[in-house]
Amino acid sequence: MEPVLKFARRWGAPVAAVIFFSLWCVAEAGRMGGSWLSWSGNWPLALMTLAVATASWKPLVSLGFTVALLAGQLSHALPPMYSNHWAIYLGSFVALGFILWTAPPRLQYIAAGTNVVAAAIMAFLMLSWRYGDGVGWYPPAYAGDRWMLQDYGWQLFALLLLIAGACAAVGLVLALYQERGSLFRARELAQSSLKETEIDLIVEQERTRIARDLHDVLAHSLAVIAAQADGTRYLSKDQPKAVLNALDTIARSARSALVDAQRVIEGVRDDGMVTPQPRLSDIPALIEGMQRGSLKIHSSESGTPVELSTGQEMAVFRIVQECLTNALKHGGRGTDVRLHFDWSGPGLTLHVASAVAPSGHEDPADPAMPRVGRGLPGMRERAHLAGGWLTAGPDGEHFRVTVFIPYGTRDMRAADGTAEAGGTLGEISGAEPQPALAATGLPLPAGAAREADDRG
């Protein structure tokens, strides 16, 4: 049924016009006087045929053909209807049915109003003694148009409206049927889409659960491997150098695998493709964007940059991003931030210093209630997973964050000639690396650790 209606909606009007014209030509063949051109109804039939043919494609043009016929007859430019072909007027109502089926609502109202007026004019043309003179239905109008229209005008007008209403009803029924089918298809599509969305949600939840479980297992296992290797290396100083190198390689490989696994788990999209991860080359764009947010950032660099692993570059980017975000969050617009990258040591040392907001400015609702922030613990975890460390705390009028990220394993640095004897950070310092603030002799104020944990 749907293919038939689709074809009829597009080609029904031209087909109906051909049938309309052919039937009239056959019916009036004996009364045409031997030639269609000499027949008095040729122009009305041609105009009504065109009105039907263009109803679906050009509704206004179709109405124009009807108006042209009636205007031509009122002005005597076209011959009036006779008793044998007055029904050619019904072509206008057939065109009305196609317009109500296919046209937009606004054009439907215009077509309906035009056909009501056209029906009144048709009734006048058929009854007036100046035009149709009753077209053979009624007695001659000896007393003039007034009595003829008064006695028979409403009857003929009601008949024409009844025929027009029947054609219009057919068009509206077809339009409502197709609209109902469209609504059913839209509902089925919505239900199918909802079902697919539910399936995708279930799959995403299961994927998230598996990723979380996998990350927890890897994090625990690799962290234990790294800790055991570091502990054995520090407690076995008298072991051969090859053993220490092996333990160092095991620890660093475990940390690197942990960082890379976390990066892969966080970066995989639903379609299985890995999303691009931030790198050190993205930091200038980050700084530029934060400066547009009214931070005054002064960035500097010393030493020769050294290539870091992908996981380490992502860790540095996220730490810088979190530091700038905290500076804007806690210091407000216009906060001065100093950012320095030091490549001169055994690893990248990052210094971030931002102005401290006035006391009590950050939490006026309840200044005595400490806030538990997640920014600094997250940065510490990223730095630790990258093989380094992070310290943070207030220093006078500034809040300072110091990060150290080692360049690579001892064997890589020895091969490049960029490290002194001992190679690893633990062997250079002889102990756990200390924060830059403590190393430079800057004392941390009382409660600095607590305030640092609250920031972020």
Features:
456 residues; alpha+beta; five-stranded mixed β-sheet; 9% strand; rod-shaped
Q: How does this model look, in words?
A:
With about 450 residues, this protein is an alpha+beta fold. It has helices at about 1-25, 40-55, 60-75, 90-100, 105-125, 145-235, 240-265, 285-290, 310-330, 375-385, 410-415, 425-430, 435-440, 450-455; strands at about 295-300, 335-340, 345-355, 390-395, 400-405. It has a 5-stranded mixed sheet. The protein is rod-shaped, with a radius of gyration of 45 Å. Residues about 360-375 and about 410-450 have low confidence and may be disordered.
Shape: rod-shaped
- What spatial order of strands do you see in the largest sheet? 1-2-3-5-4
Mean pLDDT: 78
Largest sheet: 5 strands, mixed
User: How far apart are the termini?
Assistant: 66 Å
The succession of helices and strands, N to C, reads HHHHHHHHEHEEHEEHHHH
- Residues in helices, as a percent range: 55-70%
Question: Radius of gyration, Cα only, in angstroms?
Answer: 45 Å
Number of helices: 14
Q: What structural class do the secondary elements suggest?
A: alpha+beta
- Unreliable sequence segments: 360-373, 409-452
Strand content: 5-15%
Number of strands: 5
